[in-house]
C-alpha cells in the first residue's frame, strides 16, 4: 500500500491546520498576558476575544470545500482558503518558535522591516529549529483531528443554515442550499428557533461595545488578519516646516498658590541661531544649525529649518530643552584638575569601543551583583567556591580598565598574572569609571547615536534615523571641523607649534571598524551620515583586494570574530604613530551577540552547571563570548603599548545594551520588546594611563560621552587655541553632562519667570523632597529615557536620583511596568497593569504617595519626550 494512502484529503487537513494553529496562537497570546488581566473580566469578555477567530474559521470552511472539476470558482475558493490556512499555520509556528527562544510574542508590525533586510533574515532563520518543531507539532495535531474538525464545523454551519431556512435537509451543502431569506418565518416554531441565536448575537454585540479597548482589542487579534500589520510600514518624511514644540507638561505651584510650567523656553532666538564665529566658511556636514543665519536660510528656501507659523528655528536648541541639566559650572574633580594643570595628561587619540550586549555585571565579573548570585545558583553547594574562583577570573582586562578588582572565594584580591594585558603598575591611575550608567536604547545603533553624536534616538521601530538629519554634530564631524580649520590656516599651525605640542597641529583621521556586516538595518548609511570616511567591515575583510586575508570562519550570521581585525588595527596604530596623524577609532564588537559563537580554537570554560529548572547553555555561551571579547580588548591595549601611543590615547568603553537571560527573568529573554533592567545597565569607562582614577556613581547615559571627551580635550590642553574655542563652544550644546565634573541628578530653579529678578539657583541636591520647594525653588530632575528594542513600542523612564523605573507602553499592545530598583535591583518582582490608573492602585500600598507622584510625572514626561523627539528629528509618518 502506498504511503499516500495514509495522508488526509487536502481540504480537511488544511482547514484543520487553520483551526489548530489559529486557536493555539490565540491561547498563547492570552496566556502571555494572563497575569495582568482581572480574572472575572477575562471570563466575561472571553467570547469576544475568540469571535474574530470564529469568523475566520467560518470563512475558510466556506472556502475549503471539495471542488467540482467543472467549477473553476470552487477551485479558486479552495486555493484561497488553502493559502490562508498555510499562512496561519506558518505564522503560528513562528509565534511558538519565537516564544520558545525568548519568552515573548512576535510583533508583526516590525516584521516587514526584517523581511526586507537580507542581514535581518539571518536573525530570523537562526530560530528555524524551534519554528520547525512548532510547525511539526501543530501539523501532527491537525492531521489527527482533520476529519473531525472538518465535518463537525461543516455540520454546524449546515445546522445554522437550516435554522435560518426553515429545516431543509442536511444533504444540501452550504454553498448549494436554495436561496431563501432567514427572515421568512411562517410560524411560531421558526421564531423559537431563531430566538437563541438573536440572544447570543445581541449579547456578543453588547460585550464587544462595552469592553475596554485596552487590552482587549489587542488580545482579540486573530491570525491571519494580524499579519497585515507587517505590511503597514511607516516611512519618514522631512518635507515642509516643523511643528511647534509641545510645552513641557510638568507644573509647579509657587508660594502664592499659582500654578505655572516647571520649565519655560528661552525666547532669545536670533542670538542663539546667528552664524557661529568659530565656524569656517564651508563647514563639514553636521553643523547646519550654525551654518546659516535666518536670512540665509530663507534665501535658500530651507523651510524645514523653521517652525510652522513663525520664525523660530526648528532645530534642537539646548536653551529650550527642559531635560537638559548642565554641570559645566561645577569644578573639575580635584585629582583631575591637578593633573591637567601640570600638563601630565595628553590626549592625541581617541578610541571608542562599543561592546555588543555589554552588561555592566560582566565588566568586570565580580561578586555582589544579582547576576553573579544567579550564576552561582546553577552550581551545587559543594562546588560554589570553585565556581566563584572561575567566574571572578573571567574578565581580567575589564578589572584593570575599570579599577574594580574582584575577590576570590576567600576574599582575596584576584591574581591577574594570567591576564592577556597588564596595565602599568601605577597606583591610583587609569581614568574615569562610571557605576550606574544606562543605555539610551536596547537596539544597537540607536544606542550608538547617543555615544557618537550625543543625541537621543527616534522612538520608532528600527533605524529610521538613517534617512534623517542627525540634529547634533557627531564625533567624526567634529574632528573634521578641527581639520578644516587647520587646512585653512597653515601659518597659524606653524605659530601654534612653536608654543604648543607639535601634535596639536596634526590632522585627525576617523575610522570605523567591525568584523561583521554593516548592511544590517542601514548601518552603512548611518555611518556615512555620522561622518566616517574610512571603514573596515566584513565586506572589506572578504574583498579579493583585502590587505590581510581572513583566517577563520564566520562565527554568527553577521560575520567574523573580532581578532580578524587585529592586523588592520595594528596598521592604523602604526600609521598614526609614524605619520603624525591624530586618530579617532570607533570599534563595535559582535561576538557577544546571539548566538554567542566563538572561533573553533577558543577553549570554552564551564561557567554554568546544571542546577535549576532552566537550560544554562545559552548563558554559558554568552559568558565565554564575553571572555573572548575581554581577551580582544587586551590585544588592543597591547597594540597601543607596542606602537608607543598608549600614554596619549583615551580609550572609552561603553556597552550598547545588556542581554537578559532566563537566569535574570524567567518570563522573557533577549532584548526584543523586553524592558528588563539587565538589558539597560552598561559599563562606561574613560581610560587613560596618565589620568588619576576617579570612581563615579551616576545614572548617566551615553549622552555623556561627547561632552566628557570635549571637556577632557580642552582641560588637558590637547587642542590648539582655535580647536579649543570650537570644542568649548560645542560643549554646552549637548544634552549630556561632562563626567569630569560632579554629576547633577537634579537642579533647583527659582519659580519666578525668566524676565523677572531671580535668586541664585541651588544645584545638585541629593534627594527629591517635593516638586514645590518652600523657599521658592522648584526641583527639576535629570530624566533618563531608554528605548526598548525595536524602538517604537515601549520606553524605559527613570530619573537620576530616584530609584523608581517605569516601562511606558507606546502602543496599546503593551503593559505599564513599575519597579523599585533600590529594593529590587534585579527586577525579580515586577508590578504590571494595562492602565496607569490600575498600576497606581497596585503600587501605592507598597511604596506610598511619593511613588504615585513620580509615576504620574514619569508618564507625562515620557509621552512628551516621544513627541518632542519626533519633532526634533523632523520625523513625520507617511
Describe the structure.
With 878 residues, the chain is α/β, with parallel strands linked by helices. Among the domains are: 229 residues, no CATH class; 325 residues, Alkaline Phosphatase, subunit A, CATH 3.40.720.10. It is built from 25 helices and 20 strands. A hairpin with a 5-residue loop joins strand 2 and strand 3.
What percentage of residues falls in helices of 4 or more residues? 25-40%
Derived from helix and strand composition plus strand pairing, the structural class reads alpha/beta
Strand content: 5-15%
Distance, first to last CA: 59 Å
**What is the topology, as strand order, of the major beta sheet?**
7-6-8-4-9-10-5-11
Low-confidence stretches: 1-7, 168-186, 269-274, 297-301, 488-500, 753-774
CATH architecture of the domain at 334-363 and 424-459 and 466-536 and 546-733: 3-Layer(aba) Sandwich
As a whole number of angstroms, the C-alpha radius of gyration is 31 Å
Q: What kind of sheet is the major sheet?
A: 8 strands, mixed
Specify the number of helices. Answer: 25
Number of E strands: 20
> What's the shape?
globular
Provide the descriptors you would attach to this structure in a database record.
25 helices; 8-stranded mixed beta sheet; 20 strands; disordered N terminus; alpha/beta; 40% helix; Alkaline Phosphatase, subunit A; 878 residues; 5-stranded antiparallel beta sheet
Strand and helix layout:
Blueprint: H1 10-31, H2 39-63, H3 72-102, H4 111-115, H5 118-125, H6 128-165, H7 188-210, H8 213-219, E1 236-237, E2 251-253, E3 259-261, H9 269-273, H10 288-291, H11 294-299, H12 334-341, E4 349-355, H13 370-376, H14 384-391, H15 396-402, E5 429-435, H16 444-453, H17 475-488, H18 490-499, E6 508-513, H19 523-530, E7 534-536, H20 538-542, H21 566-578, E8 582-588, H22 617-643, E9 649-655, E10 684-692, E11 694-697, H23 705-715, H24 721-730, E12 746-750, E13 762-763, E14 777-781, E15 783-787, E16 794-799, E17 802-809, E18 816-820, E19 831-833, H25 836-873, E20 876-877
Parallel strand pairs: 4-8, 4-9, 5-11, 6-7, 6-8
Antiparallel strand pairs: 1-20, 2-3, 5-10, 9-10, 12-13, 12-14, 15-16, 16-17, 17-18, 18-19
Amino acid at each position: 500500500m502506498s504511503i499516500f494512502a495514509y495522508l488526509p484529503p487536502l481540504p480537511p487537513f488544511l482547514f484543520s491546520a487553520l483551526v489548530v494553529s489559529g486557536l493555539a496562537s490565540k491561547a498563547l497570546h492570552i496566556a502571555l498576558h494572563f497575569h495582568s488581566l482581572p480574572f472575572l473580566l477575562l471570563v466575561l469578555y472571553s467570547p469576544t476575544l475568540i469571535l474574530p477567530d470564529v469568523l475566520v474559521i467560518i470563512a475558510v470552511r466556506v472556502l475549503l470545500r471539495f471542488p467540482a472539476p467543472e467549477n473553476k470558482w470552487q477551485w479558486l475558493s479552495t486555493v484561497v482558503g488553502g493559502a490562508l490556512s498555510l499562512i496561519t499555520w506558518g505564522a503560528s509556528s513562528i509565534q511558538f518558535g519565537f516564544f520558545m527562544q525568548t519568552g515573548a510574542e512576535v510583533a508583526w508590525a516590525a516584521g516587514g522591516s526584517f523581511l526586507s533586510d537580507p542581514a535581518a533574515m539571518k536573525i530570523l532563520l537562526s530560530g528555524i529549529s524551534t519554528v520547525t518543531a512548532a510547525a511539526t507539532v501543530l501539523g501532527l495535531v491537525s492531521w489527527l483531528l482533520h476529519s473531525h474538525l472538518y465535518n463537525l464545523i461543516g455540520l454546524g454551519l449546515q445546522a445554522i443554515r437550516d435554522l435560518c431556512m426553515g429545516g431543509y435537509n442536511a444533504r444540501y451543502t452550504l454553498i448549494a442550499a436554495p436561496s431563501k431569506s432567514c427572515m421568512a418565518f411562517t410560524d411560531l416554531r421558526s421564531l423559537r428557533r431563531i430566538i437563541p441565536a438573536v440572544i447570543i448575537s445581541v449579547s456578543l454585540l453588547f460585550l464587544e461595545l462595552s469592553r475596554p479597548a485596552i487590552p482587549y482589542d489587542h488580545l482579540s487579534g486573530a491570525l491571519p488578519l494580524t499579519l497585515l500589520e507587517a505590511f503597514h510600514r511607516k516611512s519618514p518624511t522631512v518635507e515642509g516646516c516643523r511643528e511647534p514644540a509641545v510645552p513641557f507638561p510638568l507644573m509647579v505651584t509657587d508660594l502664592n498658590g499659582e500654578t505655572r510650567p516647571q520649565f519655560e523656553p528661552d525666547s532669545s532666538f536670533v542670538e542663539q541661531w546667528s552664524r557661529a564665529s568659530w565656524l569656517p566658511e564651508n563647514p563639514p556636514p553636521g553643523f547646519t544649525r550654525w551654518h546659516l543665519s535666518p536670512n540665509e536660510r530663507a534665501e535658500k528656501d530651507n523651510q524645514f529649518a523653521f517652525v510652522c507659523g513663525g520664525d523660530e528655528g526648528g532645530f534642537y536648541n539646548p536653551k529650550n530643552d527642559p531635560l537638559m541639566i548642565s554641570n559645566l559650572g561645577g569644578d573639575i574633580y580635584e585629582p583631575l584638575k591637578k593633573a591637567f594643570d601640570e600638563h601630565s595628561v595628553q590626549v592625541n587619540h581617541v578610541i571608542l569601543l562599543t561592546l555588543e550586549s555589554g552588561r555592566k555585571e560582566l565588566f568586570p565579573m565580580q561578586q555582589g551583583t544579582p547576576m553573579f548570585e544567579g550564576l552561582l545558583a546553577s552550581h551545587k553547594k559543594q562546588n560554589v567556591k570553585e565556581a566563584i574562583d572561575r567566574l571572578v577570573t573571567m574578565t581580567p582586562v575589564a578589572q584593570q580598565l575599570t579599577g574594580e578588582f574582584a575577590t576570590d572565594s576567600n576574599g582575596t584580591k584576584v591574581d591577574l598574572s594570567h591576564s592577556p594585558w597588564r596595565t602599568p603598575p601605577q597606583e591610583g591611575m587609569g581614568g574615569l569609571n562610571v557605576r550606574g550608567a544606562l543605555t539610551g536604547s536596547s537596539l544597537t545603533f540607536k544606542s550608538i547615536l547617543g555615544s557618537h553624536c550625543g543625541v537621543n534616538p527616534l522612538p520608532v521601530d528600527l533605524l529610521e534615523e538613517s534617512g534623517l538629519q542627525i540634529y547634533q554634530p557627531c564625533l567624526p564631524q567634529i574632528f573634521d571641523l578641527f581639520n578644516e580649520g587647520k587646512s585653512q590656516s597653515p601659518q597659524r599651525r606653524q605659530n601654534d607649534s612653536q608654543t604648543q605640542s607639535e601634535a596639536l597641529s596634526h590632522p585627525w583621521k576617523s575610522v570605523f571598524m567591525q568584523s561583521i556586516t554593516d548592511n544590517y538595518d542601514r548601518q552603512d548609511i548611518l555611518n556615512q551620515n555620522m561622518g566616517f570616511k574610512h571603514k573596515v567591515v566584513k565586506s572589506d575583510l572578504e574583498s579579493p583586494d583585502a590587505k590581510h586575508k581572513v583566517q577563520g570562519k564566520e562565527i554568527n550570521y553577521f560575520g567574523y570574530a573580532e581578532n580578524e581585525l587585529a592586523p588592520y588595527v595594528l596598521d592604523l596604530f602604526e600609521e598614526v604613530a609614524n605619520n603624525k596623524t591624530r586618530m579617532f577609532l570607533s570599534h563595535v564588537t559582535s561576538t557577544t551577540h546571539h548566538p554567542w559563537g566563538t572561533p573553533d580554537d577558543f577553549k570554552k570554560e564551564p561557567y554554568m552547571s546544571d542546577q535549576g529548572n532552566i537550560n544554562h547553555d545559552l548563558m554559558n555561551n554568552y559568558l565565554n563570548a564575553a571572555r573572548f571579547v575581554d581577551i580582544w580588548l587586551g590585544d588592543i591595549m597591547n597594540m597601543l603599548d607596542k606602537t608607543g601611543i598608549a600614554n596619549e590615547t583615551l580609550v572609552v568603553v561603553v556597552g550598547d545594551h545588556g542581554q537578559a537571560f532566563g537566569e535574570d527573568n524567567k518570563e522573557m529573554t533577549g532584548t526584543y520588546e523586553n524592558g528588563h533592567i539587565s538589558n539597560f545597565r552598561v559599563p562606561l569607562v574613560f581610560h587613560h594611563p596618565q589620568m588619576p582614577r576617579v570612581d563615579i556613581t551616576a545614572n548617566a547615559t551615553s549622552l555623556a560621552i561627547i561632552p566628557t571627551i570635549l571637556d577632557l580635550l580642552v582641560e588637558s590642553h590637547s587642542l590648539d587655541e582655535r580647536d579649543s574655542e570650537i570644542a568649548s563652544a560645542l560643549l554646552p550644546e549637548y544634552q549630556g553632562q561632562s563626567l569630569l565634573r560632579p554629576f547633577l541628578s537634579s537642579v533647583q530653579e527659582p519659580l519666578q519667570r525668566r524676565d523677572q529678578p531671580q535668586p541664585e539657583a541651588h544645584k545638585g541636591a541629593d534627594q527629591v523632597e517635593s516638586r514645590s520647594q518652600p523657599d521658592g525653588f522648584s526641583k527639576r530632575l535629570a530624566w533618563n529615557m531608554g528605548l526598548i528594542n525595536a524602538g517604537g513600542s515601549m520606553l524605559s523612564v527613570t530619573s537620576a536620583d530616584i530609584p523608581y523605573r517605569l516601562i511606558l507602553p507606546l502602543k496599546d499592545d503593551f503593559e505599564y511596568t513599575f519597579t523599585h530598583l533600590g529594593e529590587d535591583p534585579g527586577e525579580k518582582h515586577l508590578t504590571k497593569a494595562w492602565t496607569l490608573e490600575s498600576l497606581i492602585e497596585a503600587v501605592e500600598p507598597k511604596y506610598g504617595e511619593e511613588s504615585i507622584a513620580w509615576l504620574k510625572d514619569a508618564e507625562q514626561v515620557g509621552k512628551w519626550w516621544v513627541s518632542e523627539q519626533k519633532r526634533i528629528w523632523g520625523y513625520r509618518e507617511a
